[in-house]
Design goal:
Outer Surface Protein A, domain 3, 8-stranded mixed beta sheet, 3-stranded antiparallel beta sheet, 18 strands, elongated, binds iron/sulfur cluster
Length: 333
């Protein structure tokens, strides 16, 4: 089939679609299909091959690679997955690197650990949520928190800027997500569950996880933590996608980057919260291209893992302790 396709286009050139982004890693590469929100893990040699054949006349490609079995396999994949097209000229504009984040909110994603302090100050915290323009809010109930407050807090959020709500709480038997009556609720996580299960009830995803509370909040990379789309890709190229405009608010209302952050960036109730945001932005603007081993990772522009980079003074580089090894493509738990 691919031979037919190539033969039909002998007088044309081959072009890679501008929404298909080849990314090389240490041991393998990936093609991000930003139009289909999909990723294809491929050998690095295919990424090199794309660089070589892109924009070349089909006849020349066939003359040079026609006898090469691997080149045929690669061409077959590129055509089958519709990563390439044939034309006399490239009609598609290149993906702009400008305006990588057109969202005007100061914080897009907030995790809030619900405590007595948070519940007692929730009206004021809501004012901050509005001021920051938070779009995605995750409410986390620790083991000891009063779960009876769920409906009360959600009711206060009714007219807020939040468009997506998720909740985590200790395992509850027979919990009915419909009792929350909140259309913005998409995900409910039950940690410390005796079993592992994911189901959908009333358009809400329920995840029953065996993780302890601490494990549930730990930063972790995973293939399910990959976000493939145009906006995420550009954010990933210009900043750290896992941390950008993201904040963790602990039980005392203190701003941090994640649940194990040793640093504190002021309180959510501070009147000069802009200064706190500035300090946070210094970390989230650190690109993954400057962090090891992310720099060598084929997932670096799609990974939403929120590890905090640390500076290694000896090696003069930033690093994270990730559970994925891009040199071997192995995941550890
Ligand atoms: S190495 Fe970096 S980019 Fe790759 S999975 Fe880990 S945190 Fe994400």
């Amino acid at each position: 089939m691919e031979l037919t396709c190539l033969n039909h286009n002998l007088n044309k050139k081959l072009f890679l679609f501008s929404c298909c982004m080849p990314v090389k890693g240490s041991a393998r590469g990936a093609i991000y299909d930003l139009q289909r929100d999909d990723i294809e893990l491929v050998p690095n040699s295919l990424i090199d091959f794309i660089g070589y054949i892109n924009k070349k006349p089909v006849q020349i490609i066939l003359d040079e690679w026609g006898d090469n079995e691997i080149a045929w396999e690669y061409l077959e994949l590129l055509i089958e997955k519709e990563f390439v097209f044939f034309s006399s000229e490239d009609h598609f504009p290149k993906l702009s690197n400008k305006c990588f984040n057109d969202d005007t909110s100061k914080i897009e994603y907030m995790t809030l650990v619900v405590s007595e302090f948070i519940a007692n100050n929730f009206k004021m915290i809501l004012e901050r949520i509005e001021y920051l323009g938070v779009k995605r809010l995750h409410l986390h109930w620790p083991l000891e928190a009063d779960k009876g407050k769920i409906l009360e807090l959600i009711h206060v959020l009714e007219h807020s800027s939040v468009v997506n709500l998720s909740i985590s709480l200790p395992y509850q038997k027979d919990f009915n997500p419909n009792s929350i009556k909140e259309q913005r609720l998409t995900n409910l996580y039950f940690y410390s569950s005796p079993y592992l299960e994911s189901i959908e009830i009333y358009k809400v995803n329920l995840y029953f996880l065996k993780h302890s509370e601490q494990d549930f909040l730990l930063p972790k990379a995973g293939i399910n933590m990959i976000s493939i789309n145009h906006r995420a890709f550009l954010t990933g190229r210009n900043a750290n996608l896992g941390l950008y405009k993201t904040v963790f608010v602990n039980a005392n209302g203190i701003l941090q980057l994640n649940s194990i952050d040793l640093k504190e960036y002021g309180s959510i109730l501070d009147s000069d919260i802009e200064n706190n945001l500035f300090l946070l932005s210094e970390v989230w603007n650190l690109k993954r291209d400057k962090i090891m081993p992310c720099r060598k990772c084929e997932l670096k522009y799609a990974c939403t893992a929120n590890f905090i980079p640390e500076y290694d003074h000896k090696k003069k580089t930033y690093f994270v302790n990730c559970n994925y090894n891009p040199n071997t493509n192995e995941w550890s738990s």
